[in-house]
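Ex. 9. Protein: DoxX family membrane protein.
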Amino acid sequence: MRSTDIGLLMVRVVAGLTMAAHGTQYLFGWFGGGGLTGAATFFSQSGYRQADLIASSPACPRPSAVSPSPSAW
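Predicted structure tokens for DoxX family membrane protein:
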């Protein structure tokens, strides 16, 4: 394994863990996040009408953003 391969692996692992932490903040409220309720409250206070729908719509693809896909190989 070349040093370039190890460096790219480290970048991917750090990026993946960052995305996973952000996703768990958004979905479950872990790591000090507000969860879906907090996101809906934020959107509602910002003046959006269907805040619950807006908060929950991006929640579905978030876990799949962290999982490895065959196209990334």
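Check your answer against this statement. The radius of gyration is 16 Å.
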